[in-house]
Amino acid sequence: MPKSYLRQSALAHLHLEAHAVEVAGDAGVDLCERPFRGQLVLRGDCTDNAFRDAVQQALGVTLPVEPNSVTNVDQVSVIWLGPDEWLVVVPDGHEQAIEQELREALAGIHFAVTDVGDSRAVIGISGPHARDVLKKGCSVDLHPRVFGPGQCAQTALARCHMLLHQVNQAPTYDIYVHRSFADYIWCWLEDAAQEFGLAIIAQAPGASAGARAPESEPVVPA
Amino acid sequence: MSQQRNRLATGGRIDRTRPLSFSFNGKHFEGYAGDTLASALIANGVRLVGRSFKYHRPRGLLTAGSEEPNALVQLGTDAASEPNQRATQVELFDGLEAVSQNCWPSVGLDVGAVNNTLSRILPAGFYYKTFMWPKSFWKYYEHVIRKAAGMGRAPESPDPDCYDKMHDHCDVLVVGAGPAGLAAALAAGRAGARVLLADEQSALGGGLLGRRAEIDAAPAAEWIAKSISALQAMPEVQLLCRSTVAGYYDHNYLTIAQRLREGSDPGRRCDKPRQRLWKVRAKQVVLATGAHERPMIFRHNDLPGIMLASAAQCYINRYAAKPGDIAVIFTNNDSAYEAALDLAEAGVTVVAVVDVRTAAESPAQAAVRSRGIEVLYRHAVVAASGRRRVSAAKVMALDDSGESVSGAARTIRCDFLCMSGGWSPAVHLFSQSRGKPSYDASKACFVPGQSVQAERSAGAARGSFALAECLTEGHEAGVAAAAAAGFQRPGRPAKPPVAAKVDEAPLQPFWLVPAAPPGAPLNKHFVDVQNDVTAADIALAAREGYRSVEHLKRYTTTGMGTDQGKTSNINALAILGQTLGADISAVGTTTFRPPYTPLTFGTIVGRDIGALADPVRMTPIHSWHVANGASFEDVGQWKRPWYYPRPGESIQDAVNRECLATRQAIAILDASTLGKIDIQGPDTAEFLNRVYTNGWKKLEIGRCRYGVMCGEDGMVFDDGVTTRLGEHHYWMTTTSGNAARVLAWLEEWLQTEWPELKVYCNSMTEHWATVGIAGPFARQLLSELTDDIELDPKAFPFMTYRAGTVAGIAARVFRISFTGESSFEINVPARYDLALWNTLMTAGEQYGITPIGTESMHVLRAEKGFFIAGQDTDGTVTPLDLGMDWIVSKQKDFLGKRSLARPDMLREDRKQLVGLLPVDPQEVLPEGGQIVTDMDQKPPMNMIGHVTSSYYSVNLKRSIALALVRGGHKRHGETVYVPLENKVIAANVSEPRFYDPEGKRMHA
């Protein structure tokens, strides 16, 4: 592996760390980049029990088959993208091991797994007005009665495609956008958050899509 | 500072402890917090607020609400200035500056008023009749007419304020917060539904704010306050005031324009937007939009001081502002009696109520009479008099038919006149929802007909004008809407709010006061005061054959303009009906279109301005390009380095330098925008065989192949190189602009036509960054940065692939070439792109490594005759037209194959790709230049094709071009011409390959 200091996150050029605070204050909206999150696209037939079982065995997570839902255990989340498509989100550095796990478990089954860790930038948004900011550019109903933790949506935010995952009740959301749009969408979010007060939060690389700030070491399936 | 001489000492919903100063037409005044600009003008005794559009007649306030046709003002100055603001809706703030529109040089002395004297020769359709001959002169007339027309000035510099948008969803959207709307919101909210209540006014309460009424045995104000706190206590209820529901679209999608603050405050920018456009999807909609009172149509009914009875009542009750001291009231219904009592209560001398009806025993009438106010039954105001304000009403007795007046005229002195011609439900949103209003003869108004979408109307909006009915209907609508959205209040049903039932004498429809004396012209009986349309104009239009109400509208302009005829439409079509002898229901209404009241463009645009208007897609090393002075080119939404000028270099200088470096040393290109698709599965080879025109079954692992994709029509749609990475694993590349389209195309075929194929496609475009190095030193440079890839041409030949490590980074390296040089495309995960690029730049310095942009890339590939899909093709070009017969398989089937066999595809005179070499090698053809064979023709010349790509090639020391030319493959050697504005360029047709036609360099 190359030296990790050589790598750059999608928003590295904005030097967010220079504006960041360690903990959220009383801002209405907290934004952070979640850099270097491991992401694999998994394709397969969800009606095939053997496929589902093999994925469960490899990841330790039940494959979500309910549209727009997310399952997660510890540091691994599986985000439903389509009837035959999932985004497997894993801790930084564990992509290859988990890809290998999947390949071994799925031997003999028609599937595809691809490392797409640099395809999408991940931006975390939380705070009392997080939903209001999203509502400015997203036409999906995010009201707690309709959309909650463990749900995801592939939709538009402002003028680009987004994969939205609600992480917790806070609410905290993870926004996945294609890397080339990251600069635009970050600027859009900063602009939209202005009226509510914005804090940029420092974020350790590779924090997972699951619960916030886990204390334990990342769990990698053996 | 003038005294507020018409301000009442007590009462009203204004805050006398918070005086606000403002200026109107340059004069300074004072009002109070809670005032509108209109109420503050009334309080200050200002009558003249504007001039009319066509005749420039003096005009005063007609209404107290958003339907106001007259009091249009230009608000603010300079960039923050806003035209066409209704004084009745503008909330007063300290320092407000407003001027009247449609008057020059001033509202008091208006030059355009000469039109008034000329009104006899400015009849309906005047513009159409006068300015259409000669037809070609319209363009001259138009300028003058537009200037005279006025209607405010658009500011010339960018709006300094911030506007924003918000999407939202709700179970029940209640439009209007009058008695019906509040009752509906309460009922729906108590059922547990997500309720959004939107009202255009600054306070909730609707018409109740301007009336003295009782609800639940207490003053209405108390009920409003209690209702608001009850609603605020419901977590799922959202209250939006200053929020006009502007449009009602399909699938219960409505837009709301919210005014967050008055005036401009550029300093605040986006931490406090000025207006917000809400885009709401509602499960159910309750329309409690109320009703508009109609004016009476009599001679000089447009004089300042003549206003709707409900408006006068509202100014007194809500704003404690008296429109005058002596009032005459003219009505055809009982609601004006309530106004008369409120005026009298406030100290106004109501000298007479003129009622077109015969006396009836209703409580309101009795109360007025018992107060000693004279009621003139079966009478009409036939004319008003006064110069810039009404000073008297001329009253005559109506005969039995009501169609003429007779007897002696009585002149009653007054300083304002209130009128009520009945009420028209605000069916605008209902109509926008595609519902058709139907005429209710008993109420003399159009009411909502059958619902088309999930909506219901309640209260005055459906013709139930009595307060008691508004409350019950609102409540029932709220309960029903919540239930339809799946919410029912547990336990006992809630009781609706109650108001006393009041007996009313029925209204008598009365659309037009007869001329006095009979036969006199009706040319000062104003129907539409904003557009100066009179009863005479409508009658004339009817006589001229404009029988459809839609034609009448366009011919007379009635119902046009900023108010869209809210106070005039129903009167206009009733008069049209009378003239035609047709029933009103047969005449029908014009179409109500969004927006309900005008929106400022800023609200529609929101934050979609400047850098936020359209995303810029950046490659992972974009900042390097910026720092190194690249000029950028837009490729779709991507910004790609176009060329890298050094100080003093022109684009041609830079491109020449970059092109020479590529062929003589080494070039480096950011190719990350290239589309990349990961394809896995045992049927991939079969799949590729079907989507590409050439064969893919025999491609070995580690080898690359160029392919062309056609649509079903046989036309070239994309091209690229696909590589076999493993047994069942391929890597497809597409052109930058088509990456998403190609993936969608592949998915469409896999999902809809060939689901049996075991193939999965995934986009890799953004994950893998691509850096191309090309030129004689490319291999040498790469050899310094890798130790696990054998670079010898025999070990790593052209059109093959190797995985390995480059600059310490796991990379996929391809020996493919678009420049025609020996080149390597190095792909690394995007996070390492900058590290790779920097390493190559540093290590390549000794070889003269030169970053090149898209322009040089285009020149270099054109030297090789490589086409660019979308530049040299345009959706009408087949692979055969490109001279690429070799890539079209005859053995197998593929998408587009059948089309390629059609006779038209085999025609010899199809446009085919050729090279063009200008006879003068320094002359560069313009791209798009049309090609002819014979310069002796007269225009229009017979054009045989056009130039698709054209450059100066420094490597060839001459200009080159590619072109699509009819029958071009058989024209090699011919001379053709490109006639231009001031010269003609001659060029020789050639093979489209100018440099290293054998391809020795890229194989090297």
Describe the structure concisely.
The complex is a heterodimer of chains A (222) and B (1004). Chain A is an alpha+beta fold and 222 residues long.
**What's the tally of helices of chain B?**
26
Spans where pLDDT lies below 50 across 5 or more residues of chain A: 210-222
Number of domains of chain A: 2
* Oligomer classification: heterodimer
User: The CATH topology of the largest domain in chain A, please?
Assistant: Gyrase A, domain 2
Strand-residue fraction of chain B? 25-35%
Task: Give the strand tally of chain B.
Answer: 49
CATH superfamily of the largest domain in chain A: Probable tRNA modification gtpase trme, domain 1
Using only CA atoms, what is the Rg of chain A? 17 Å
Total number of helices of chain A: 4
Sequence stretches where pLDDT stays below 50 over 5 or more residues of chain B: none
Query: What about the largest sheet of chain B?
Result: 7 strands, mixed
Strand content of chain A: 25-35%
Number of strands of chain A: 11
Structure overview:
- The complex is a heterodimer of chains A (222) and B (1004).
- Helix content of chain A is 19%, strand content 29%.
- Chain A is an alpha+beta fold.
- Chain A folds into 2 domains: 109 residues, Probable tRNA modification gtpase trme, domain 1 (Gyrase A, domain 2); 80 residues, Heterotetrameric sarcosine oxidase (Alpha-Beta Plaits), CATH 3.30.70.
- Chain A has a 6-stranded mixed beta sheet with strand order 8-9-10-7-1-11, with helices on one face. In chain A, strands 3-4-5-2-6 form a 5-stranded antiparallel beta sheet, covered by helices on one side.
- In chain A, strand 3 and strand 4 form a beta hairpin.
- In chain A, 50% of the residues are buried.
- By secondary structure, chain B is an alpha+beta fold.
- Chain B contains 26 helices and 49 strands.
- In chain B, a hairpin with an 8-residue loop joins strand 41 and strand 42.
- The longest helix of chain B is centred in the middle third of the chain and has 18 residues.
- Chain B starts with 14 loop residues before the first strand and ends with a helix.
- At the A-B interface, strand 6, helix 3 and helix 4 of A face strand 8, strand 38 and helix 22 of B.
